[in-house]
Amino acid sequence: MTDAMTPPQEAPAPEGARTSFPNDPDLLSRVLRPYRSKDTRYLKSAVLTVTAAEDQAGGSRLSAVCEFEIPESCYIDDTGHFNSVEFNICYNQMLYYGVAKAVQEKLVPPFSGWTMDDYWNRQLANFLITDFRSTFKRSMRGRVFHGEIEFADIVEWEGSDIRDPLLALRTLCRYWDEYGGGCHGEVRIAITDPPPVPRALLTTAAEV
Q1: What are the angstrom distances between the C-alpha of 20 and each of 49, 56, 107, 141, 144?
Q2: 191 close to 197: Cβ distance less than 8 angstroms
Q3: Does any domain span residue 11?
Q4: Residue 36: inside a domain, yes or no?
Q5: Is residue 39 helix, strand or coil?
Q6: Which of 26, 34, 44, 39 is nearest to 101 (CA)?
Q7: CATH at residue 78
Q8: How many distinct structural domains can be found in the chain?
Q9: Which of 43, 175, 33, 53 lies closest to 98, judged by CA?
Q10: What percentage of the chain carries pLDDT values higher than 90?
Q11: Which tens digit of pLDDT belongs to each residue from 102-151?
Q12: Residue 183: enclosing H or E segment and its boundaries?
């Protein structure tokens, strides 16, 4: 029987040495603090993994496998299934925790050049969704389920006379439950006003 925390294998995982970081309850609590109602704190745990590329030029890849619980909908009567609004809320919480943990552990550039204050000062106002795509393959019950986020691309754009500095992320995500339900998506994020980081880290980030 497959472990529920193991995502269904739809594509080969990135090759290379892996280091996993267990759930950090204190960090998770701080990340979810902006969600004023406890009923909207859907993310219960997350295990972050950094996978090194086979060659040094390839950089490292971040991903996280997460556990969720939605006792009841925060905005509508029970629909009986996981819906697009919940998809988005869960995605945001995976993203926030993933970046916060990467900053805390200094895992990959440019986040390895951030301080935790850099992150907390930007978590809400500077994380912007620029493109959001979701596909629902099979209906999920949406009460207790799992999710995964992968940071596929991380690129730092330096500022110029005509453009402010920007950090661009391309992420992949998916959710599944023990009943065979599942959905997935691709989301692009812009982080505005990123803190300045050493040029060596900028170069590496562009190669991730």
Answers
A1: 4, 19, 11, 29, 23
A2: no
A3: no
A4: yes
A5: helix
A6: 26
A7: 3.10.129.30
A8: 1
A9: 43
A10: 63
A11: 999 999 999 999 999 999 999 999 999 999 999 998 988 878 999 999 99
A12: strand 182-192
